[in-house]
Description:
Blueprint: E1 21-30, H1 34-52, E2 54-60, H2 65-71, H3 77-86, E3 89-94, H4 108-115, E4 120-126, E5 137-143, E6 153-157, E7 164-168, H5 174-195, E8 199-204, H6 212-226, H7 228-231, E9 235-240, H8 241-250, E10 257-260, H9 262-272, E11 285-287, E12 292-294, H10 313-325, H11 329-345, H12 359-369
Parallel strand pairs: 1-2, 1-3, 3-12, 5-10, 8-9, 8-10
Antiparallel strand pairs: 4-5, 4-11, 6-7, 11-12
Amino acid sequence: MLRNGVYRACARRTVVNGARSNLTIGLIPGDGIGKEVIPAGKKVLETIGDKYSIDFKFIDLHAGWQTFLDTGKALPDETVSILKQQCQGALFGAVQSPTTKVEGYSSPIVALRKQLGLYANIRPVKSVSGTNDRPVDMVIVRENTEDLYIKEERTYIDEATGTKVAEATKRISEVATRKIAKIALDIALQRLKNTGKATLTVTHKSNVLSQSDGLFREVCRDVYEKNKDLYGNVSYNEQIVDSMVYRIFREPECFDVVVAPNLYGDILSDGAAALVGSLGVVPSANVGPDIIIGEPCHGSAPDISGQGISNPVATIRSAALMLQFLGYNEAAKDIQNAVDENIRSGKIKTPDLGGDSSTTEVTDDILSKL
């Protein structure tokens, strides 16, 4: 466990082999299929808890579009308060957000990331050996608190033309960039220890956005150069985001750890999911100093909501990631191995992967492999 790196957020907790431990986990299904996949994640945690002497306490919490319609708030104060005061981890399902502006509504997951200091979004994209997927094994590290996601927008009338103009502020700070560069390099260092090689690729568009993306690029390189004694064996690369999109599909095997500002990281990780079958299998962890929130990368999928065919794999893998960043590495590894075995067999899978199994059938198959 990297005390000063990836797992720094939870260094206050020591995991002792053989001793029982307690974890309080918030469950935030959100909207659409979130209500179907979060229970799957809960079942897997309960099962792995029995095996590793972890006593889980689950707290059901509310957030999302339906919560906004019911209460006038997409992210109730009570949800934030309970997460801050009682929870070490949480699972967040999905949010169905309107495509046009609705007065008073803003994305609850974006707000949660800001209010809980969840500065890093870690998204592993990995194929399973023994399947027909291309060999992919990368981690996309996405800065989670700024860039265009600060949501500072305005619309006004241009006096010269008499037509509407919309503007959005893109914010890149040295403080946030140093934090995200550090955790990306720590992840690369851990992979170096595991496999004997690691590369960090910094993604940017500084050829056009010379100040904002230029600062991101400059600070990432500075963190690497000033810590050569620690990271010197990690290879360092830079890639302009448009060519990165091209290369990530043409030669994904060339990428290991990718670090990017918020928007680019969001787009790259969703696109990379196509390399491993479906958004339904790609997990993420929102990492902060006091809490880890696992979050599947898929959306609320209203077209299949309520049909019982949503893929629980991304949520189950997100639960494993949450445990990993909380320091429960062996429990996390067991969950990942059970999921890989399910995918490798190819017998029980949901329609997004070409199968005809239900959410429950896939969950039960993974549970049987634990």
